[in-house]
Each structure stands twice: as C-alpha cells, then as structure tokens.
Amino acid sequence: MGDEPERSLSLRAAARARRRSMGQLTSLVATSVALVWKSGRGLFVLLLALQLTAALALAGQVLAVQAVLSAVLSEVSVGALAPPVLVLAGLSALSLIATGVQGQVQRLLAERVTRSMWRRALIVATGVALRHFETPEFYNRLSRVQTNALTRPYQVTQGLMGMAGGLAASVAVAAALATVSPILLPLVVLGGVPVLLTNRRESRLEFDFALEQTVTVRWREYFTVLQTGRDEAKEVRAFGLSAWLMERFERHYDAYQRDLVGHVRRRTVLTVLGQLGAALVLLVTLLVLVWLIAQGRIGVAGAGAAIVAIRMLATQVQSLFKGVQVVFESGLFLDDLDRFLSLGTAAAEEDRGDEAPSSFRRIVAEDLHFRYPAAETEALRGVSVELRAGEVVALVGENGSGKTTLAKLLAGLYEPDSGAILWDGRDVAEFRPSSLRQRVSVVFQDFVRYAFSAGENIAIGRADAPPDPDRVRAAARAAGAEETIESLPEGFDQLLSRLFPGGRELSGGQWQRLALARSFYRDAPLVILDEPSASLDPRAEHALFSSLRDALRGRTALFISHRFSTVRGADRIYVLHDGLVAESGSHEELMARDGRYAELYRLQAGAFLESGGDRDA
Ligand SMILES: Nc1ncnc2c1ncn2[C@@H]1O[C@H](COP(=O)(O)OP(=O)(O)OP(=O)(O)O)[C@@H](O)[C@H]1O
C-alpha cells in the first residue's frame, strides 16, 4: 500500500514537531487563551466567575467543617450547631451548582471555539495552491486538523478552565488549610508532582500515537466513504464489493486497534505510576497529621478540618495538573494545526502581483514544461500554443498526452516549471494568481454537481457578485439547459440533489449542460472546456457546437475533445502526443499533412463507416 516511506516521513516529522512543540508551549497556551477569549468573552468571564465561586465555596466548606466539629466537641446546644451546619450545606450546594452550570457554559464556549477553528481551517483548505492536493502529506495533515480542529479547542477550553478552577480552589483551600495547620501545606502540593510528571509523558505519547496512526486512520475512513457514499453505492452493489470492502476495512481497523492496545497499555502504566506516587505523598501527609495530633499540636476539630482540606486539596491540585496536561497535549496538536494554518498565510503572500487585464488579443504559451509534484516524468515536455481573441481552439490527443494538464496551466491552477504563458506579451507570473483565475472560466471533465438549486449551480460561476436572474437564464439557454430547468417543479429554484429533502436529480448530460451554463455565466475572456460534450447526446452536441460561437459572444474558447466531428470546426487544432505538440493547424491543413491527426480522424470516421454511421464524418 506504499505506507512505509510515508510512515517513516511522519515519524521524522513527529520528532521534529516534538522538539518544536516543547519550545513553543508557552506561546501556544497564550494563543489558546486568546482564541477562547476572542471566541466568547462573556462566556469566558462567566466561566471564570463560576470557577471562582466553586473554589471559594470549597474553601468555605473547610472552615465550616472546623466550626461544626468545634461545636460538636464543645457539646453546645443543638440550636448553636444549626448555623455552621446550614452554612456547610449551603456552601456544598453552591459549589455543586456552580460546577454543574459550568458544564453547560463550557459546552457553549467550546462550540464557539470549534467554529472559529473550523473557519480558519476551511479558509486554508480552499485557499492553498492546488499542488498541495497532490501530496499525501497534505491529506495527512488535513485529516489530523479535521479531527483535532473539532476536539482540541474544546479540550483546551476545558484544560484552561480546569487549570483556573484547580488553581483558584487550591489557593483557597490551601489558605483555609494554612489557618488550620501550615506544616501540611507543602506536603499536599508535593502530592501533585508525580501526576504532573507522568501527565507530560502521556501527552507526548498521545501526540506521537495520533501522528503514527494518521495514514491507517485515513485508509479506514476511505473505506467507510466507499461503503457509505452515494456515488459509490451503485458500483458496490453492481460488483458485489460489500464483503471485500468490509474485509479491507477490518484489516485497517485491526491494525489500528492492535497499536491502540499497546498505546493504552503504556498510558495506563504511566497513570498508575503517577497515582501511586500521589497516594504515597498523601500517606506521608496523613502520617504527619497523626504525629501532629499525637504531639498535641493540633486539636481534634482542626484535625478533622485538615483531613477534609487535604482530600479537597489533593483533588484540586490534581485537577490543576490535569488541566496543564490537557493544554500541553492539545498544544502539540495546535502546533500541528498552526503549521497547517501557516499554509494559508503563505497562500495569501503568494497571491500578489498586478491585476490581470480584463481582455487579451493573444495568449501565447511558450515551451511549457510541467511535472506533477512527486511524479517521475514530465506531463508537459515543451509545449507551445497560441490562442487569439475570439478563436475556438481544439486540443486533441491520446489519453495521458497532457491536454488537461495544459488546460490547468492556462487556467492558472498550476505554474509551469519552465517556459511562460504570455498575455499580450506579459508573463502571467506577474499577475495576481487569483485575478488571473478570474479571467478564465473552466469546465472540468469531472465537474462538481453541487447540491444547490439549478439557478445557484449556474450563478456560482461568479460567486463574487449577486446573482443576476436574467443572465442565469441566458447562460442556461446558451448551454441548452433552459428547457430542462424549466421542466423541473421549482424551475431555477429546484434543489438538485437527492441528499436533501425536496431535491431532484438530473441525468449526466443534463448536469453537463448546467456546468457549461456555469462557465458561460462567469463571463471571462477565456473559456476552457475539458470534454464538454462527453455526456451529451448527438443532437445536444451538435446544437452546442453550432451555437458555441454565439454563446461565447466574442470570448476565446479552448476545448478538449476526443470527438473529431466537433473538433473539425475549430479555428486551430493542436495535437498533443506524450507531452508535446505533435502537429497543429486547421482541420484541412492537418488532413492534408496526413500525419497523426489524419490517422486518428480516419480511425474514428472508419468506425462510423463500418457500422454504417455518419458517412460524412
Ligand atoms: N494529479 C496528477 N499527478 C501526477 N500525475 C498526473 C496527474 N494528473 C495527470 N497526471 C499524469 O500526467 C500525464 C498527462 O495527464 P493529462 O490528464 O493531462 O492527460 P490528458 O491528455 O488530459 O488525458 P485524457 O485524455 O485521459 O483526459 C499523464 O501521464 C498522467 O498520468
């Protein structure tokens, strides 16, 4: 499955990440606090107030216990016992209520933090250069971010609150304990240290485990998508893939669970060690307390209150250190997220340059070379083409000859490794990439079928402007989609998807017309159509190409097609072969040349003739 190099890369990255993370923890904690604060100031303050209330109520309970015990021991009347008992009950209720409300407030705050994290991650995911989507490393990070952007900010919130609450309660209870017996204080605080040490180690184990498992988890997720996806459902049934896919799914899950057992075992050992250490210190503290009682240095009431305080403090100190652990652990993941988000910053920095002009007279691509990231060979090995304003130019060639790659370069989605694309003599590298992409309208072979209304499916061709219903209709007409849309129960407002209630589905060809309408609506001077008629019936295809120049209204079109009957009408045809332009010219010129084009043309025409089809072709 090719996991091994990937795995060792992740491990090396993990080691690097760990070194960086240790140094950056403080700043990550500061970032987390700022994030939570920005996401919901009111809720943040409310939470802190609740923590403080709970902490003070706890400390009050220590003093109340002492008062109750003193009252009991001095054998006062039942009436005199009532006030401290009532205070104790009231404080206990107050701390429980404050803790209970905290849980709900935390949930609201965590959701806000999650939302703002998602927002940032999605901006990056839609903004980074397309080349990132060619590498597994990018998907690994994206996968971790998707998982952790959802859970970690919540945990940071909890961790911070745990720390704040633990700290406030520890200080308050410690102050109360100090009034009873100051000697015990350092011992109780010492009790938290073993847990602090083991917690830090556990955090690192958790992060390393997540890093190591990324690829396994992604494989597992891929198999769930195959088994639950709507598009895949047909083939899964038609080929009877259910058992086969399940077996693969189980295999990845087995691997994960095997590793998880080892990981959980290591974490459990650490937890037990930490707790044993804490219990040992607690034992010493209690022995010291017994010694203090034996020495007569502390009264019975004071001893009772001290026992309550020691128990409370031990819990609070642990909660404080647990909070530190959660923030530390999340910090490692947030560091990961941080590096993902920095891709967005880099993308924003890359998007600089002059505005691309709104029209051109001539686009010339000169000697373009391009290799996909991680590919061994070049997809384009020195391609030169020319597009003049208002022309319809065709790209033909065998599968894998480089047509779509050339289209992607001309659309500004990738940059050539060498060579240049010139708009009226100016290298497009000078233009702001996003402004160049605005000047190009592309319909890909595998265009997206958006689960939006028919009108929105067209109008998002220019998502930066409010939709213009007249232009949407005109684009639909030009693409031959108007009639289909009109026949839908809700016309242009019809939701197109069976995924949501009230949606309708279209046929492949009908979807293709909608995608074409989207590209016409975009109103860019260059329109690139990658096999625009692959799903169209012969009548629709004929109608499209005979009205293409009208639909383009003076714009330039570059289209890719394997159907020579549509290609022959182009002003110029480029024949690509193995990443190079093998021939170019008009249909007549290429036929006269009797080269590769003529051969492919005759092959297709011959197939028709043999089957008694179009003799003119
Ligand atoms: N994302 C990618 N990563 C790596 N290599 C790729 C990628 N996409 C395409 N290639 C390779 O680049 C070469 C050109 O592919 P391209 O898609 O441009 O061909 P095409 O002429 O459009 O083919 P088709 O007629 O099948 O659509 C092929 O060898 C292909 O394997």
UniProtKB/TrEMBL annotation:
SMART domains, alphabetized: AAA
Pfam families, sorted: ABC_tran (PF00005)
Tell me the ranges covered by the ABC transmembrane type-1 domain, including all copies: 45-321
InterPro entries, A to Z: AAA+_ATPase, ABC1_TM_dom, ABC1_TM_sf, ABC_transporter-like_ATP-bd, ABC_transporter-like_CS, P-loop_NTPase, Type_1_exporter
Respond yes or no to whether keyword Cell division is given for this record: no
Matching entries from CDD domains are given as:
ABCC_MRP_Like
GO CC, sorted alphabetically, is: plasma membrane
Family, according to the entry, reads as follows: Belongs to the ABC transporter superfamily. Siderophore-Fe(3+) uptake transporter (SIUT) (TC 3.A.1.21) family.
Molecular function per GO: ABC-type oligopeptide transporter activity; ATP binding; ATP hydrolysis activity
Record-given protein name = ATP-binding cassette, subfamily B
Can you say where in the cell this protein is located? Cell inner membrane
Question: Any idea where the ABC transporter domain is?
Answer: 363-603
Q: How does it sit in the membrane?
A: Multi-pass membrane protein
This protein's record includes keyword Cell wall biogenesis/degradation: no
Alphabetically ordered keywords of this record: ATP-binding, Cell inner membrane, Cell membrane, Membrane, Nucleotide-binding, Transmembrane, Transmembrane helix, Transport
Residue intervals passing through the bilayer: 44-69, 81-105, 167-197, 268-292
